[in-house]
Protein backbone atom coordinates (compact mmCIF):
# COMPACT_ATOMS: atom_id res chain seq x y z
CA UNK A 1 0.00 0.00 0.00
CA UNK A 2 1.21 3.47 -0.82
CA UNK A 3 2.15 5.77 2.08
CA UNK A 4 1.34 9.46 1.81
CA UNK A 5 3.52 11.54 4.12
CA UNK A 6 3.58 15.19 5.06
CA UNK A 7 3.68 17.66 7.90
CA UNK A 8 3.56 21.25 9.07
CA UNK A 9 5.81 24.17 8.20
CA UNK A 10 8.08 23.87 11.26
CA UNK A 11 8.30 20.07 11.14
CA UNK A 12 6.97 19.49 14.67
CA UNK A 13 4.02 17.56 13.23
CA UNK A 14 4.53 14.78 10.72
CA UNK A 15 2.00 12.29 9.44
CA UNK A 16 1.95 9.15 7.33
CA UNK A 17 -1.33 8.00 5.79
CA UNK A 18 -1.72 4.60 4.18
CA UNK A 19 -3.55 4.61 0.84
CA UNK A 20 -5.82 4.57 -0.93
CA UNK A 21 -6.38 8.32 -0.71
CA UNK A 22 -10.12 8.93 -0.51
CA UNK A 23 -12.34 11.72 -1.83
CA UNK A 24 -9.74 14.29 -2.86
CA UNK A 25 -11.67 17.52 -3.34
CA UNK A 26 -11.53 21.26 -2.98
CA UNK A 27 -13.84 23.17 -0.67
CA UNK A 28 -14.52 26.89 -0.72
CA UNK A 29 -16.84 27.11 2.30
CA UNK A 30 -16.22 29.90 4.78
CA UNK A 31 -14.88 27.45 7.42
CA UNK A 32 -12.20 26.24 5.02
CA UNK A 33 -11.38 29.75 3.85
CA UNK A 34 -10.91 31.05 7.37
CA UNK A 35 -9.17 27.91 8.65
CA UNK A 36 -6.54 28.05 5.91
CA UNK A 37 -6.48 31.70 4.88
CA UNK A 38 -6.78 30.50 1.29
CA UNK A 39 -9.69 31.12 -1.11
CA UNK A 40 -10.24 27.39 -1.43
CA UNK A 41 -8.80 24.40 0.41
CA UNK A 42 -7.76 21.08 -1.16
CA UNK A 43 -8.59 18.05 0.97
CA UNK A 44 -8.11 14.32 0.99
CA UNK A 45 -9.61 11.87 3.46
CA UNK A 46 -8.28 8.81 5.27
CA UNK A 47 -9.86 6.60 7.92
CA UNK A 48 -8.24 7.48 11.26
CA UNK A 49 -6.86 3.95 11.63
CA UNK A 50 -4.81 4.42 8.47
CA UNK A 51 -3.22 7.66 9.71
CA UNK A 52 -0.17 7.75 11.99
CA UNK A 53 1.08 10.94 13.60
CA UNK A 54 4.79 11.32 14.29
CA UNK A 55 6.23 13.91 16.64
CA UNK A 56 3.68 16.29 18.14
CA UNK A 57 -0.05 15.76 17.68
CA UNK A 58 -1.92 18.69 16.18
CA UNK A 59 -3.91 21.03 18.40
CA UNK A 60 -7.62 21.15 17.61
CA UNK A 61 -10.37 23.73 17.63
CA UNK A 62 -14.01 22.66 17.59
CA UNK A 63 -15.47 24.17 14.41
CA UNK A 64 -18.84 22.42 14.21
CA UNK A 65 -21.01 19.79 15.88
CA UNK A 66 -19.16 16.99 14.13
CA UNK A 67 -15.65 18.21 13.38
CA UNK A 68 -12.56 19.88 14.81
CA UNK A 69 -9.95 21.81 12.87
CA UNK A 70 -6.37 20.66 13.44
CA UNK A 71 -3.32 22.88 13.37
CA UNK A 72 0.27 23.03 14.60
CA UNK A 73 0.45 24.92 17.91
CA UNK A 74 4.08 25.87 17.21
CA UNK A 75 3.96 27.29 13.68
CA UNK A 76 0.21 27.70 13.10
CA UNK A 77 0.05 25.58 9.95
CA UNK A 78 -3.41 24.27 9.14
CA UNK A 79 -3.22 20.48 9.05
CA UNK A 80 -6.73 19.21 8.52
CA UNK A 81 -10.08 18.38 10.07
CA UNK A 82 -10.71 15.59 12.55
CA UNK A 83 -14.31 14.39 12.45
CA UNK A 84 -16.14 12.68 15.27
CA UNK A 85 -16.70 9.87 12.84
CA UNK A 86 -13.35 8.13 12.38
CA UNK A 87 -12.36 10.13 9.33
CA UNK A 88 -9.48 12.56 9.12
CA UNK A 89 -9.33 15.06 6.28
CA UNK A 90 -5.85 16.38 5.52
CA UNK A 91 -5.00 19.51 3.58
CA UNK A 92 -3.18 18.53 0.41
CA UNK A 93 -0.71 21.42 0.65
CA UNK A 94 0.92 19.79 3.68
CA UNK A 95 1.84 16.61 1.84
CA UNK A 96 5.44 16.03 0.77
CA UNK A 97 4.18 15.57 -2.81
CA UNK A 98 1.01 17.61 -3.31
CA UNK A 99 1.15 16.95 -7.05
CA UNK A 100 0.72 13.19 -6.63
CA UNK A 101 -2.01 12.31 -9.16
CA UNK A 102 -3.94 10.39 -6.49
CA UNK A 103 -4.47 13.68 -4.65
CA UNK A 104 -5.99 15.58 -7.57
CA UNK A 105 -9.40 16.93 -6.56
CA UNK A 106 -12.37 15.03 -7.97
CA UNK A 107 -15.01 17.62 -7.09
CA UNK A 108 -15.41 21.09 -5.64
CA UNK A 109 -17.60 21.63 -2.56
CA UNK A 110 -19.21 25.02 -1.93
CA UNK A 111 -17.95 26.12 -5.32
CA UNK A 112 -20.25 29.14 -5.32
CA UNK A 113 -18.38 30.57 -2.29
CA UNK A 114 -15.07 30.76 -4.17
CA UNK A 115 -13.86 34.06 -5.58
CA UNK A 116 -14.89 34.32 -9.23
CA UNK A 117 -11.26 34.62 -10.34
CA UNK A 118 -10.36 31.20 -8.93
CA UNK A 119 -10.58 28.25 -11.30
CA UNK A 120 -10.02 24.69 -10.13
CA UNK A 121 -9.53 21.84 -12.57
CA UNK A 122 -10.85 18.65 -11.06
CA UNK A 123 -10.02 15.14 -12.22
CA UNK A 124 -13.43 14.92 -13.92
CA UNK A 125 -12.54 17.95 -16.02
CA UNK A 126 -15.37 19.90 -14.41
CA UNK A 127 -14.58 23.06 -12.59
ZN1 LIG B 1 4.57 23.30 12.94
ZN1 LIG C 1 -15.10 23.61 3.54
Automatic annotation (TrEMBL):
Protein's UniProt keywords contain 4Fe-4S: no
Keyword annotations of the record: Lyase, Metal-binding, Zinc
Key word Transcription present: no
Residues covered by the CENP-V/GFA domain: 4-100
PROSITE patterns with a match to the protein in the record: CENP_V_GFA (PS51891)
Family to which this protein belongs: Belongs to the Gfa family.
Protein name (record): GFA family protein
Amino acid sequence: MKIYSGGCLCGAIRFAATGPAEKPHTCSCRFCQQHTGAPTAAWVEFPAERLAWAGAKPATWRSSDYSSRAFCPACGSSIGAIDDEPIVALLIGGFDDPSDPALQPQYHSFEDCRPVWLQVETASGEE
